[in-house]
TrEMBL record:
Residues given in the record as substrate binding sites: D122, G123, S124, S125, N214, K280
CDD domains named in the record: FBPase
Subcellular location(s) of the protein: Cytoplasm
InterPro entries given in the database record: FBPase_C_dom (IPR044015), FBPase_class-1 (IPR000146), FBPase_N (IPR033391), FBPtase (IPR028343)
Keywords, comma-separated and alphabetical: Carbohydrate metabolism, Cytoplasm, Hydrolase, Magnesium, Metal-binding
Homology family: Belongs to the FBPase class 1 family.
Cofactor(s) it depends on: Mg(2+)
Source organism: Arenibacterium halophilum
Protein name per the record: Fructose-1,6-bisphosphatase class 1
Lineage per the UniProt record: Bacteria, Pseudomonadati, Pseudomonadota, Alphaproteobacteria, Rhodobacterales
Domain Fructose-1-6-bisphosphatase class I N-terminal per the UniProt entry, residue ranges: 15-199
Length: 341
């Protein structure tokens, strides 16, 4: 058996966060919140694993505020987030894809300065076909514990995020996290019941050889998006001079994870069909947290016309076009939008 240095043991997420609190001054209230979120993600992971045996697949029969039919697991995952985060003592309020209004903290619990935005189950159309799904979260810190938690309190641009991340429920469960000093990946050690640091120094290469877009919407694309994709698929004989690969999982978490691990670019652009809604993906709990992670990994995230994290919000469920990943690729697509406008 080869000699093993005991100091090589992968830190648990909690060990990592506690070290960061001591060594870099990471706010301990944020550590408490991240611990609660990680616990929620472990609980969701557990409730997903038994699938049809546990009777958790299929539709819940209800609709959320954006008119989507909720899956049973959308509702279960939302309840799990609320249950594990409400009592943290550090939250001012929460905003979820599955809740119409800002979620107040029950009076029996202490309140704090943090606001948590979450997409409890991302990619829920993939649940019944047993394809990877995830949970996404974004965290803001207010100056003070607010008296009220109306929309004015929570509607801040993404540049104000202090942490963001997601859990990916794939062949293994992973938690990817940034607190503003790069992106780290933690893999769920199912024996220990803990996330453990397995991916350090995540970096997205500036150039890409892979793009992701729902091509069934080509009929409604704007010219800059059409031009970009057409040039990619022309391959070696086209203006890009190389062959691009294409992927579409339909779980944003899985697409962003692929980009953080091996590079590429992801587009859910504004098109003729979704223009009146401003796009498809939601700013607070899909676009902003993923933009934060991607920028922290050296990539870029844009609407095609604006840096996503600089979009000034006006409502908690607002949608935005999303183009993110490899820096040079996003710059090229932004350039095509500028030429077109
Ligand atoms: P959600 O399941 O949280 O509603 O999000 C689904 C999102 C996102 O994960 C994915 O990128 C996109 O919707 C898929 O859209 P299409 O069905 O148009 O492919
Ligand atoms: Mn949904
Ligand atoms: Mn989603
Ligand atoms: Mn969702």
């Amino acid at each position: 058996r080869p000699e093993r240095d005991v100091t090589d043991t992968a830190l648990t997420l909690d060990q990592h966060l506690l070290h960061a609190a001591r060594e870099t001054g990471l706010d301990t209230d944020l550590v408490i919140l991240l611990n609660s979120i990680a616990t929620a993600c472990k609980a969701i992971s557990a409730s997903l694993r038994d699938g049809a045996l546990a009777g958790v697949l299929g539709s819940h029969g209800s609709q959320n505020v954006q008119g989507e039919t909720q899956k049973k697991l959308d509702v279960i995952a939302n309840d799990i987030f609320l249950e594990h985060c409400a009592h943290s003592g550090v939250l001012a309020c929460m905003v979820s894809e599955e809740l119409d209004e800002v979620q107040e903290i029950p009076a029996r619990f202490a309140r704090g300065r943090y606001v948590l935005f979450f997409d409890p189950l991302d990619g829920s159309s993939n649940i019944d076909v047993n394809v990877s799904v995830g949970s996404i979260f974004s965290i803001l810190r207010l100056e003070d514990v607010p008296e009220t938690t109306d929309y004015a309190t929570v509607l801040r641009a993404g540049v104000e995020q202090v942490a963001a991340g997601y859990a990916l429920y794939g062949p293994s469960t992973m938690l990817m996290l940034s607190t503003g000093d790069g992106v780290r990946g933690f893999t769920l050690d199912t024996g220990l019941g803990e996330f453990r640091l397995t991916h350090d120094d995540i970096a997205i290469p500036a150039a890409a050889g892979e793009f992701a877009i729902n091509a069934s919407r080509a009929q409604w694309w704007e010219p800059p998006v059409r031009r970009y994709v057409e040039e990619c698929v022309q391959g070696e004989s086209g203006p890009r001079g190389k062959t691009f690969n294409m992927r579409w999982v339909a779980s944003m978490v899985a697409e962003v994870h692929r980009i953080l691990i091996r590079g590429g670019v992801f587009l859910y652009p504004m098109d003729e069909k979704n223009r009146t809604q401003g796009g498809k993906l939601r700013l607070f709990y899909e676009a902003n947290p993923m933009a934060f992670l991607v920028e922290q990994a050296g990539g870029a995230a844009s609407t095609g016309r604006t840096r996503i994290m600089e979009v000034e919000p006006d409502q908690p469920h607002q949608r935005v076009p999303v183009i993110l990943g490899a820096r040079d690729e996003v710059a090229l697509i932004d350039g095509y939008h500028a030429e077109f406008d």
